[in-house]
Specification:
There is one protein chain. The chain is of the alpha+beta class and 610 residues long. The chain is built from 16 helices and 29 strands. The chain has a 9-stranded mixed beta sheet. A 5-stranded antiparallel beta sheet has the order 1-7-4-5-3. The C terminus is likely disordered.
């Protein structure tokens, strides 16, 4: 028979157990009412994680989404990643990783991006953060599993205010905090911090600095510039390679990976390199050829020409002779002048004879526009006086460029890929009258804004700078914002092409209704002609798979997001359906034909080998 003491202890134990059960139930009830009903789960989604905050750039690189998923799930500090492209799991993309997936864009432009949310509730850091809010008051809860009957992880997940858990080695009590400053992390062998990433939103009380913070874009009037001193601030890290590099290698290393590079010795056989000069070009046609230009003079001798967008070469030459400053950015305009010639006219701006004086650098692939039978106006001659240049900008959509300096030197500034230029331009309302925004001189941006950008990171990359000299050709991938200043008087030629790296952007733009070409004449049928030529003649089966996958992705989002053509303000995106496939007989027929040709080629190769 039990003693009174034994009965009392048993009754007390049952009472404590019952209280624990009630406590857990109450905590679960309170928590469930505060937990977002649209909590995101691990997986691939359409959308873009904005660059700048919470980046985990140590993992960044070119890899397949399958590899990135495996890497992120194994790495305790990885909360997700993003890349531009579709969900072809075995295709290489440039992938950007993050500790926390919070700043996700869901507008129409983001439909050509994918992001991955890791299938975990916490990212784990071996160390601590300084968890003080702005008032210097620490808000904490203490959780001991032995006492409460609930783990710190369960408690934090149920508590919408909890953002992290601090654990100390050999201590059973954990600390829950409701504020975290990512930038204050300190390594520690004794402490571990678990950062809650499940249900994280922009309202979550986790702070991290942004590369856009504290930027002063009110550009002052620049004084006299010491060019030599200014050039010493440049860290030229742009690699130089021979123009003899095989095209296949150039395409795989630079075009498909959207990597800028300088080619040397491409101009050794060019007439342009041997014979062109600003004076000779401006005097062609007796000085009556018209050039698109801007100029600046100290006196009022040429004031009458200031409102003109194009000027004859002899006037521009006289401006130079009178110590004036000119900036010529003139399109040779193959499309425009070909059409005019077909109509029996030759304009006074026609310079198509210059095409015989230079050629496309051999490693650069053929332009898909030209291969599809479409002419463009994406060819330019540039003549620039010292101190002139172009403000931060991106080139025509869907195109990559090559730019060759024939004489003089250019200072280039390249933003990281996919970073738009507008937030970094001199703000017109508070900047000097000629500070950027179309002004002929751009010293102010280079001396005021650029120094602030150095060292900041977007998608793990910093601003790149280099000096381009005579005979050097820069290959410039698309969607790479850049600014250029002429260090001395320069002469250069440049062209823009549609290359392999533009397929995703092109398909997205096609569905979004964007214009294919910009120039003298744009016709509604150009999109259809280009589509048919690309899909049924020029692209191989692998590239067509890329095109179909992006088409399916964008169409799916447009059809399933009510505000697809406006700013999409949904908390979470639509998860991609792995089985989603459009049934296109023409697609299948073309791919079957490719497979048959590949089999025949394989058999021929085997016979040759035997």
């Amino acid at each position: 028979m039990k003693t009174d003491r034994q009965s009392f202890i048993q009754m007390l134990s049952l009472t404590i157990l019952s209280l624990k059960t009630v406590l857990i139930f109450l905590l679960s009830f309170v928590s469930s009412s505060n937990t977002p009903v649209n909590a995101i789960h691990g997986g691939f989604y359409v959308g873009r994680i904005s660059e700048g905050q919470f980046e985990y750039s140590d993992l960044n690189g070119w890899m397949t989404p399958r590899k990135a998923k495996e890497l992120c799930e194994k790495d305790a500090k990885c909360g997700g990643f993003t890349y531009k492209g579709s969900k072809i799991l075995d295709r290489d993309y440039e992938i950007y990783f993050f500790h926390i997936v919070i700043n996700v864009e869901k507008d129409l432009n983001s439909f050509k991006w994918i992001y991955y949310q890791a299938n975990k509730s916490f990212t784990i850091f071996q160390g601590i953060f300084e968890n003080e809010n702005e008032d210097g008051v620490k808000s904490r809860q203490f959780v001991n599993t032995k006492i409460s009957g609930i783990s710190p992880e369960e408690k934090c997940e149920m508590d919408i205010e909890c953002v992290a858990i601090l654990k100390t080695k050999n201590v059973s009590t954990a600390i829950l905090v409701d504020y975290l400053d990512i930038d204050t992390f300190k390594m520690s062998n004794e402490k571990t911090t678990l950062v809650k990433i499940v249900n994280a939103t922009r309202k979550t009380n986790i702070y991290a600095t942004s590369p856009w913070d504290n930027l002063d874009i009110c550009c002052p009037e620049h004084g006299k510039v010491n060019t030599k001193k200014l050039l010493k601030t440049i860290n030229d890290s742009m690699p130089r390679i021979s123009c003899d590099i095989p095209r296949d290698e150039f395409v795989s290393r630079y075009v498909k990976r959207r990597e800028p590079v300088i080619l040397v010795n491409c101009t050794k056989d060019w007439i342009a390199q041997k014979e062109w000069s600003p004076e000779k070009l401006l005097n062609q046609g007796g000085g009556k050829l018209m050039w698109k230009s801007d100029f600046e003079t100290k006196g009022e001798v040429f004031e009458e020409f200031h409102d003109q967008e194009t000027l004859p070469g002899d006037i521009l030459q006289k401006i130079i002779e009178n110590n004036g400053t000119i900036k010529v950015f003139d399109s040779i305009a193959k499309q425009r002048h070909t059409f005019e010639r077909r109509n029996g006219q030759k304009l006074n701006s026609d310079k198509m004879h210059l095409f015989t004086d230079y050629s496309k650098p051999k490693p650069v692939p053929e332009d898909y526009f030209e291969k599809a039978g479409l002419l463009t106006d994406y060819q330019w001659v540039l003549i620039g006086s010292k101190g002139t240049g172009t403000e931060l900008h991106t080139d025509p959509e869907y195109t990559s460029a090559w730019n060759t300096v024939l004489s003089g030197h250019k200072w280039w500034v390249l933003m990281p890929p996919e970073v738009q230029p507008d937030p970094f331009l001199c703000y017109e309302d508070c900047s000097c009258e000629d500070c950027g925004n179309g002004g002929i001189r751009i010293h102010s941006w280079f001396t005021h804004v650029l120094p602030q950008l150095r060292g900041r990171k977007w998608y793990g990359k910093t601003v790149r700078e280099f000096i381009q000299g005579p005979g050097e050709t820069i290959y410039m991938p698309g969607n790479l914002a850049h600014a250029v200043m002429n260090i001395d008087n320069t002469l250069s030629v440049t062209e823009n092409y549609f290359l392999d790296d533009s397929l995703d952007d092109w398909v997205h733009g096609l569905i979004a209704g964007k214009q294919l070409l910009h120039g003298y004449s744009t016709r509604h049928w150009e999109q259809e002609v280009f589509w048919k030529a690309m899909y049924y003649k020029l692209l191989d089966s692998r590239d067509r798979e890329v095109v179909r996958s992006m088409r399916d992705q964008v169409e799916y989002m447009v059809n399933n997001v009510d505000t697809a053509c406006d700013d999409v303000d949904e908390e979470y995106g639509h998860e991609l359906d792995n089985e989603y496939e459009l049934d296109d007989d023409a697609d299948e027929e073309k791919d079957e034909q490719d497979n048959e040709e590949n089999e025949i080629e394989k058999e021929d190769n085997e016979e040759t080998w035997e």
